[in-house]
Fold this sequence. Notes:
The chain is an alpha/beta fold. Helices cover 32% and strands 35% of the residues. It contains six helices and ten strands, in the order αββααβαββββαβαββ. It has helices at residues 2-11, 23-27, 32-46, 62-72, 131-142, 161-167, and strands spanning 13-14, 20-21, 53-57, 76-82, 91-98, 103-110, 119-127, 146-156, 172-182, 185-188. An eight-stranded mixed beta sheet has the order 5-6-4-3-7-8-9-10, with helices on both faces. Strands 1-2 form a two-stranded antiparallel sheet. The longest helix is centred in the first third of the chain and has 15 residues, at 32-46. The radius of gyration is 16 Å and the shape is globular. The N and C termini lie close together (10 Å). Bound molecules: guanosine-5'-monophosphate. Residues 19-21, 27, 57, 60, 99-100, 124-133, 161 line the site of guanosine-5'-monophosphate. The site of guanosine-5'-monophosphate has 19 residues, from β2, β7 and α5.
Amino acid sequence: MKSLKERIVNNGRALNETVLKVDSFLNHQVDAKLMYEMGTYFKEYFKNHGITRILTIESSGIAPTVMTALQMNLPMAILKKQQSKILNGEVYQTTVHSFTKVMDYELTLSKNYISSDDKILIIDDFLANGEAALGAARLVEMAGAKVAGIGIVIEKSFQVGRKKLDEKGYDVYSLARISKLGKDLIEFID
Ligand code: 5GP
């Protein structure tokens, strides 16, 4: 997605060799037009995957997911990050290690918002080590549903997440793929 890559180059800032800050259009301030365009790309790629529902992870996956759900005319739900385990039968829950916060959280989905015949598209803002996406996929599979695709806004391809998702056989589509980060340096795969 050319406009996203331009935006990353113009407004993104590599904090170090692994963390990219994109607060001015994705993680803090949100550029709604750019989010809508992301939705157009996700729809185009996933339109023939038989998707019935979209899941995202709070909070930065929400904006591109709303725009995708709108254009694909599908329901969406937000996976919640809880600090502790909920001990009742009404939710699916799995422990995820946070790349940016260096801590664990409980990713949570109400049983009301998924069913075993769903084909799910998971969307998130970043793919680093793959913990968040794999956690989301575990929740989908706990419900007996199928992961029909994973849409990522910014993939840091030099970290292990992409490889892990590929090894599991998931269909991953990323709007921007970064091959290298460093001080004043952002390189893309293509
Ligand atoms: P993973 O679970 O793949 O290791 O990391 C993905 C999650 O960590 C995303 O949901 C995102 O919130 C956060 N994340 C990972 N890398 C970055 C990064 O470089 N910049 C920002 N802003 N968030 C990141």
